[in-house]
Amino acid sequence: MNTRDRDAEGRARSARPRDGLGRPLPYGAPGVEWQPEGVVRSPAETVREAQRLLDAGMPFHAHEVLEDAWKSGPEAAAPLWRGLAQLAVGLTHSARGNAVGGARLLRRGAAAIEGLDGRPYGIDVPGLVRWARELAGRVADGGPAVDAAREAPRLRTVP
Description:
Blueprint: H1 43-55, H2 59-72, H3 78-95, H4 99-114, H5 125-140
């Protein structure tokens, strides 16, 4: 008998509450609301929601929003959204104290978006690449603990 928690579609999904960094908490503990998956948003809505979550110190949840855009949007935009999702996961791991994983994902995300032309959807790609590489260097060098809200990047330079 399988006792794993399942969602409405029967997929395995832990019902344990999560904190803002996506870490499981004990059953019954107060947690943050789950980010719904599979939501189709416009690029502007995606950026707005991801930024709100980043500013709230919830990069794990921002990654879910960015992943939705990557999986539901046009193929041509997938590298942007995938790279941004990797940056959010890199910030998540860094804030959780996983220096190796955090630095690796920050660098991978930066490399993924670095060659993109212009400022797609108003996203400050050059600024994000600089932010990610600087944070990855600090994390890898054993710098001070990362506060996800304080370290949150600005996806756009102009709201």
